[in-house]
């Protein structure tokens, strides 16, 4: 299982990569492994401003449906359109082509609420 050092993580297994004041968000390798084969990703919050912890969409796998939670407050400015036709990208490349949304960060201080790769690893082990 991969846990990239350059990302931040939530207790709900979302990851965040900050690029020029924007947050790219997806679910972790651990999360996709627990879900199993992802068959559908539903995100209808593009253009909406959401608070940290709000639900921004759902991911449906063979085993279950799981809510997706905003790791940071901000406006959802882009949804990964490739996931509509290829939801399996979440399984194949969760930290790359399987990204889910891009968020214009409202409060950069919220980044301090997120887990480092090391802290996320410790959480998984406990």
Structure at a glance:
The chain has four helices and nine strands. It is α+β, with helices and mostly antiparallel strands and 126 residues long.
String of helices and strands: EEEHEEEEEHHEH
Q: For the terminal residues, how far apart are their CA atoms?
A: 16 Å
> Per the principal axes of the C-alpha atoms, what is the gross shape?
globular
Order the strands across the largest sheet as they lie in space.
Answer: 1-2-3-9-8-5
Please indicate the percent range of residues in DSSP E strands (runs of 2 or more): 25-35%
Helical content (DSSP H or I, runs of 4+): 10-25%
Question: What is the CATH superfamily classification?
Answer: RNA polymerase II/Efflux pump adaptor protein, barrel-sandwich hybrid domain
Rg measurement, Å: 13 Å
Low-confidence stretches: none
Number of helices: 4
CATH class: Mainly Beta
Please give the CATH architecture.
Answer: Beta Barrel
The total number of structural domains is 1
